[in-house]
Amino acid sequence: MKIQKAAVLGAGVMGAAIAAQLANAGIPVLLLDIVLPDNPDRNALAKQGIQRALKARPAAFMDASRAALITPGNLEDDLKKLKDVDWVLEAVVERLDAKRDLWARVEAVAKKTAILSSNSSGIPMHLQIEGRGEDFQRRFVGAHFFNPPRYLHLLEVIPTPKTDPEVLKTFSEFGEKVLGKGIVVANDVPGFVANRIGVYGIVRAMQHMQKAGLTPAQVDQLTGPALGRANSATFRTADLSGLDIIAKVGSDLGKVTPADEDFTLTGWFTAMVEKGILGDKSGSGFYKKTKGAGGKTVILNLNLDSMEYEDQGKVKVAAVEAVKGRPLPERVRALYAAEGPEGDFLRGVMNDGFWYAAKMAGNVSNRLQDIDNALKWGFGWEQGPFETMDTLGVQTVIANLDAEGRTLPPLLAAMKASGRERFYDGNETVTPEGQPTPYQAPYFILSDLKKDATKVVKKRAGASVVDLGDGVLLVEWHAKMNALGEDQLRAVQDAHKLVQDMGYAGLVLGNQGEHFSAGANLPLVLSQAQADEWDELDESIKQFQQVTTSMRFSPHPTVAAPFGLTLGGGAEFTLHADHVVASAELYMGLVEVGVGLIPGGGGTKEMLLRFTDQLHPGQQSGATLLPAVQRAFELIGTAKTSTSALEARSLGFLRDHDTVAMNRNHILQEAKRMVLALAPDYVQPTPRTDIPVMGDAAIAAIKSALYGMHQGGYVTDYDLVVSEQLARVLSGGVGNNRMAKVSEQHLLDLEREAFLILLGKKGTQQRIDHMLKTGKPLRN
């Protein structure tokens, strides 16, 4: 079984978004929905679904051109086309009768080897296949995506007792490797894994909030990033999901679960739903956006006593303020031990979550890590419930549950009897029965790998060199936002030397932080400029250029594995690697103009070189070089940042031969494999000396365009200052109107000179200072 073409039945919000994710992965999709009466376009609903996905924010498509892979149709005329697809996903209305009727029709026409799935979030899979043939039931497996499917990593795969193990294996591998999802194998029980535990947590938080006398805004402070959870925390998540959805799921689960699980909704929550206060879909929920003075957006908070919206300003909670800036384990331990109503609330909510997760072990899923992953990937938690109990100490949690008079679930009773403090211990975890069992992640987890001290070959405060095995070294940056400073540069130099001295095959540049790198250490750069340390700055930039370009000009292969924010210097390191294995979610850009600078680590040089090389050989003369210069100027001068790896390729940041991986968890493995593939025949490149440039003609062309933009108010006075320095580098700085050929080093020297000139100007220092204080660019 191999999935090369798919069909999605149902073009609603989820169906269309899932179709978009399939298209992102390069899979052709047939999108079908019902025929609207009295509408001459029988495919209207499917077409509307595609348009909705194209307009969605955040964007459902990684590149708008991928929409061409979706073919709209309808369930009357086009169902017969299912004979040509390898996977059929149902995403129609959440009614069992509707799903059963549709499956009966699908069974008659679908390819006899096709995998069949439902995206239902609540209707058990085994009920949907009742009455279907044995072969149909064998090929059926639930596939529950989370909204929005592009961004939420979780895909719950739900086999029934009739599902063929080979179908489960094939589909799980497809979901993980092709669609880029984190796979959790769920049991076919109400709510599956994430919704069962996640909605329980939301319902219980409402009950504890009422008991503690807190407000929704205070609860969101306590249950958000401070606790290692998503920014949307509890009540913002409810607004995003829809209060009516929370109410229905909670009510449905309450009907089919034991009384001690208590999915009882509070009276005020039920009243909100009855009044049509449903969250974002209705325009207001626990929060409401409005326009304040000067058109500024103001977030109003719902007062649950008066049911009126109030501007409560920035809500601060003492327990959260007390842990700011501390590592997650310290924050979790401090919050769990907090005093007063805030601490009572947190312990109540956390103990409920721990008790329930342990009770669900072996029920919703047969592995503890699946429960942890479901909450991390579906709700944006940094740690799952079992990982959080490990942070606190399992016996500490058990003692607190005992003190509350709770009956321990079998898993916790077994842990109490054994005295174990952790669910995860090295390469071992426990089963739902509390018995130790071997555990190995399906991909590199650097924190696990580094538990073997011999794997850390060299360590600095902000970076490490790690042995990935098989002769491949990894440079891992681990500073805040992976801002680039001395530690990060020296770690790359350390690694190059180790590769050569110790006979390693090559080098990977990557990490598993929140982002690959947000760029240069701006506070350091600004302080040196304000202290007039120009010789030191000149030497620092020269060293930075030497290290970024060493990714290309070394006697061994280098592979960069970027993901998330890959900005400024992070982008320049990536641009110079022999090969790039990029996460599909790659936000890459040379953004230095936002702080009044130009790329100084080879980025300006590299984009000019790449775009010039892409011209036809006969065009590399005189004014015909202008399109390459203009393209580089526009990319850098507007600080254009990709919204995906697909766009990064179209912008020129990635080359055709670079690899895009849908699953970020796999990029280090693929990067290692690529180093090993390149190493046997690797020949060290030499710097180019034949780059054609336009000289003054390029500067004149750019200045002409800038004049019109300035007159039209599109660029500021200081934008002109920065742009003129950028134009000078892109011109080659040869000072004449005739084409010349220059070296890479010549362009690097121009970059460094322009960078220093701009850094010495008041306008640039104002931009850097404003960015550091506000996180936003200054338009001076």
TrEMBL record:
Pfam families on file: 3HCDH (PF00725), 3HCDH_N (PF02737), ECH_2 (PF16113)
An example Gene Ontology molecular-function term: (3S)-3-hydroxyacyl-CoA dehydrogenase (NAD+) activity
Coiled coil (residue ranges): none
Residue span(s) of domain Enoyl-CoA hydratase/isomerase: 478-604
Keywords annotated in UniProt: NAD, Oxidoreductase, Signal
Signal peptide: 1-19
GO terms, biological process: fatty acid beta-oxidation
Domain of life: Bacteria
Every 3-hydroxyacyl-CoA dehydrogenase NAD binding domain range: 5-188
3-hydroxyacyl-CoA dehydrogenase C-terminal domain sequence ranges: 191-288
Catalyzed reactions: a (3S)-3-hydroxyacyl-CoA + NAD(+) = a 3-oxoacyl-CoA + NADH + H(+)
Protein name: 3-hydroxyacyl-CoA dehydrogenase
Source organism of this protein record: Deinococcus koreensis
Lineage start: Bacteria, Thermotogati, Deinococcota, Deinococci, Deinococcales
